[in-house]
Amino acid sequence: MSDPHARDIIFGDQQERILARLQALDPHLAHDIQAFAYDTVYDRPGLDLKTKELIACALLVSLGSPPELRTHLRGALNAGATEAEVRGALHMCVPYLGFPRAVAGFELLRQHLSATQKTSPTEEAGQGERG
To answer: CATH homologous superfamily of domain 48-131?
Structure first.
């Protein structure tokens, strides 16, 4: 069996839903995103997947793209980033992008962690671990 693509890790159990959403928008767009962004750029060597996802989170905060940021916050955690590392990436956005964009990123992280903890009651909040 071959190694998983980055998208397998980033999307996790949401992969089918995410790819269906992209297909519904436009099949050619869905193909291009999967083939280029995930199966080419993300699978390149040089940076580990966790670092790529933390960078993606900061870039998506800068663009103000909540649906994509939600995907990549989850992806960063799926790729091994801790909650503290994700928070650190979001904090790095403040001096470059301002408080409103960073606050929006933190709100999406809060929503994700809250939803995750509802489905995983054994994990405790605020411990700096992934959600």
So the answer is: AhpD-like (1.20.1290.10)
